[in-house]
Specification:
alpha+beta; 5-stranded antiparallel β-sheet; 15 strands
């Protein structure tokens, strides 16, 4: 198998994935999507570093190199071209596009009939003010999230219309979601790691404030994940179409759970400290099984 690993940043995750691949007898080519080029006129026009004019059988994505909107569009186009050529890409570009766009994720979760906090996505401050005036008040806020964002960056609580930022500050898209407080007053939610359709690990995230992301100071705690939470996370991952993901859940106040987000390029260093499952090994096993299924020789009957 010709395997490529895209891990532009984060040495911890890269080293874990490399070790897991090598444990399976696979030596991957490390590359960055920023170094892939397109050249027409002779042979395969997509040129992936390290493959001498050929294409990999599989690409495992940990990160996509950052850049401008145009650069990101090109890199997603490269991934789409790889998929079209028969390369197995985890996660697929379509799954990445659906999950990084919180509006698309919410739409898919709702269409699948899964519990999720009520959400509004509008394009003007006037429309967002109407929502806030009707749905928010002191002590019962809405959460404003950037449409494209991760690790708890850019979140704000909206209790009244005047709390809303100007349109340019949110790139002219207001994503508003009902805040779901816990009955015990703790700032706590849950992360479930789903790989190849199965919830393989989970943790409690607890903070000193309402933003619980580990990147923002939240504490990972062990969690005896209930079956109902695992099943909901698996259903959410399936609804968005991600091969591996970090699904964020919150208690719904009625004894169940609701889906907050589905992440297609999740970090798991915090989760790994509180669970026994080797998460990198789970990702690699699922990914290589998918590549082998795609590249398996077909039986020809004479």
């Amino acid at each position: 198998m010709r395997i490529a690993l895209a891990a532009d940043n984060g040495n911890w995750h890269k080293s874990r994935l490399l070790a897991a691949l090598r444990a399976q007898g696979v030596e991957p080519v490390l590359f960055s999507l920023a170094d892939v080029t397109i050249e027409t006129g002779a042979g395969e026009p997509l040129r992936v570093p390290g493959f001498d004019g050929a294409l990999p059988d599989g690409v495992l994505l940990r990160t996509i190199a950052g850049g401008t909107f145009e650069a990101t569009t090109m890199r997603l186009g490269v991934l789409h071209a790889l998929v079209a050529a028969g390369c197995v890409v985890w996660n697929s570009p379509s799954a990445i596009e659906r999950s990084v766009d919180k509006a698309a994720t919410s739409l898919l979760i709702a269409r699948a009939g899964l519990p999720t906090p009520q959400t509004w996505v509008v394009s003007t401050r006037e429309a967002a003010s109407t929502v806030a005036a009707r749905e928010a008040r002191p002590g019962n806020p809405l959460v404003l999230k950037p449409l494209f964002g991760s690790q708890g960056e850019g979140l704000a609580l909206i209790e009244r219309p005047e709390d809303l930022p100007e349109e340019d500050a949110v790139s002219r898209v207001y994503y508003l979601q009902r805040y779901v407080p816990r009955r015990d007053g703790l700032w706590r939610d849950y992360r479930v790691f789903v790989c190849d359709g199965r919830a393989v690990a989970g943790m409690i995230r607890e903070g000193d404030g309402w933003i619980t992301n580990v990147h923002r100071g939240g504490r990972p705690l062990p969690w005896a994940m209930p079956a109902v939470a695992a099943e909901l996370a698996e259903a959410a991952a399936a609804a968005v179409g991600v091969a591996y993901s970090g699904v964020d859940l919150v208690e719904d106040g009625e004894g169940g759970y609701a889906v907050l987000e589905v992440n297609s390029m999740p970090a798991w260093s915090g989760l790994q400290t509180v669970c026994e499952t080797d998460i990198a090994a789970s990702v690699v096993r699922g990914f290589l099984a998918a590549v082998r299924a795609e590249t398996r020789p077909r039986l020809v009957v004479a």
